[in-house]
From TrEMBL:
Membrane topology: Multi-pass membrane protein
GO cellular component: plasma membrane
Keywords carried by this UniProt record: Cell membrane, Membrane, Transmembrane, Transmembrane helix, Transport
Protein family per UniProt: Belongs to the 4-toluene sulfonate uptake permease (TSUP) (TC 2.A.102) family.
Top-level division of the source organism's lineage: Bacteria
Record protein name field: Probable membrane transporter protein
Pfam families xrefs: TauE
UniProt subcellular location: Cell membrane
Segments crossing the lipid bilayer: 6-30, 42-61, 73-92, 99-117, 123-150, 162-181, 217-237
Length: 238
């Protein structure tokens, strides 16, 4: 990576980590499309490595608000989703994977804007976990399904429960991606350069999270994500 590319990704990761720690998701949706444009080799493994660190910190900070039962059912669904996602990464060429990533972002934004709000029944949580496992492993963006099914949760409960799910789920995905040959020394080295930005985003989120207008921030995340996805699609055809 060149200096300006590292600086750009650093800013994106900082903002994404801030959002992930504040509202429960955002790192994958922001960083995924940008990394696919700047440094495609970092998707999905690089984003997943960063997300694992951020979610681990979130779980520690919000441990008193975890819904372990809900997270457990979601993780049950995530297992087959992870296997399917790893298979996609292994067989899809870079261009197809980039288009799939963009499609996942746009579909997640569409569902959110349309107000799709499934009841968090056991079946719905398991299904969302499976979708999150597939999408997260293949594209690093596994947040939308869980954000939809758990949107009745707010504040620390949402951050803590999603953090617990994504911590274990990210480890599953990383293991599957390692088996698929996607977690290379180069990916780990480049990702390590972005860890300070992720840590700074986490630190900034602590004093500011309670003051955020979650609804407004969510729509900012969605808007930026759409822009990134559209640019990524255009790039594949020029």
């Amino acid at each position: 990576m060149s200096g300006w590319e590292l600086a750009l990704l650093g800013v994106v990761v900082l903002v994404g980590a801030f959002l992930q720690a504040s509202i429960g998701f955002g790192l994958g949706m922001l960083a995924g499309p940008v990394m696919a444009l700047v440094e495609p080799a970092l998707v999905p493994a690089g984003v997943m490595l960063l997300a694992t660190g951020v979610t681990a910190a979130t779980v520690v900070l919000e441990r008193e608000h975890l819904d372990l039962r809900g997270a457990g059912w979601a993780l049950l669904g995530r297992v087959p989703g992870v296997v399917a996602g790893a298979a996609l990464v292994a067989v899809l060429p870079t261009r197809a994977l980039s288009l799939f990533l963009a499609a996942v972002v746009l579909f997640g934004v569409y569902c959110t804007v349309r107000g799709f709000a499934p009841r968090p029944t056991r079946t719905a949580v398991v299904a969302a976990g499976a979708a999150s496992g597939l999408m997260g492993t293949a594209t690093s963006i596994g947040g939308p399904p869980m954000a939809l099914v758990w949107q009745s949760k707010v504040g620390p409960a949402l951050r803590g429960t999603m953090g617990a799910f994504f911590l274990v789920g990210s480890v599953m995905s990383l293991l599957a991606l390692t088996v698929a040959g996607q977690v290379t020394g180069e990916v780990v080295g480049h990702t390590a350069l972005l860890l300070p930005a992720a840590a700074l985003g986490m630190l900034v989120s602590r004093p500011l999270a309670r003051r955020l207008d979650v609804r407004r921030v969510r729509y900012v995340v969605l808007t930026v994500s759409v822009v990134g996805a559209v640019i990524l699609i255009v790039q594949q055809f020029v």
